[in-house]
Design goal:
Elements lengths: L7 H7 L9 H12 L1 H6 L2 E5 L3 E6 L14 H17 L6 E12 L7 E6 L2 H9 L3 E5 L1 E5 L6 E11 L6
Antiparallel strand pairs: 1-2, 2-4, 3-7, 4-6, 5-7
Length: 168
């Protein structure tokens, strides 16, 4: 995919390449938490940000726990939604905005400890996002807990539309 030109979000994150490698994840999380404040409230950690793969983590801390001491269902949703939204956000054209369109979440097992969500896009999906100012994409995401279990099965559909004023 040598015709790829990074969008605004990807360019901003590339600036962090100048930060020493050991500090990059922390700085990346600070920058992205400022951009999307609710992710900071929940304490999401932006572990990997790429155009084809995004990985985000959440610690099992009191502020995100449910009544049985696990990560709350809403926090699991935030984790998966943020991972899918960020991978889409890394690929939409600068003249477009991403919008969550549909989500499905099935709770399969009790989560243990911290969680990680990994969202991916194929080369074909990324190319479609660059070729059109409007469309939608189903974004695969896997949520895994510390025991290696997938406590939820998720499916997210994201759309992208032109960022200018709506035409009537």
């Amino acid at each position: 995919m040598n015709d790829y030109s990074p969008n605004r979000l990807a360019r901003q994150l590339q600036r962090l390449d100048e930060v020493p490698a050991f500090a990059r994840p922390w700085f990346r999380s600070v920058v992205l938490r400022r951009a999307v404040p609710f992710t900071g409230t929940a304490g999401l950690d932006f572990l990997e940000m790429g155009t084809g793969r995004v990985e985000i983590g959440i610690k099992n801390e009191k502020k995100v726990q449910n009544h049985i001491g696990g990560v709350h269902a809403s926090a699991m949703n935030l984790l998966a939604e943020t991972a899918t939204g960020m991978v889409v956000g890394m690929n939409v054209r600068d003249d477009c905005i991403p919008l969550a369109k549909e989500l499905k979440m099935a709770f399969k097992k009790r989560a243990t400890g911290a969680l990680r969500a990994v969202a991916t896009l194929s080369d074909e999906q990324r190319a479609a996002m660059r070729a059109s100012d409007k469309g939608e994409v189903k974004v695969p995401v896997t949520v895994t807990d510390e025991a290696g279990v997938n406590p939820v099965e998720c499916e997210f559909v994201w759309a992208w539309i032109p960022s200018g004023p709506r035409k009537s």
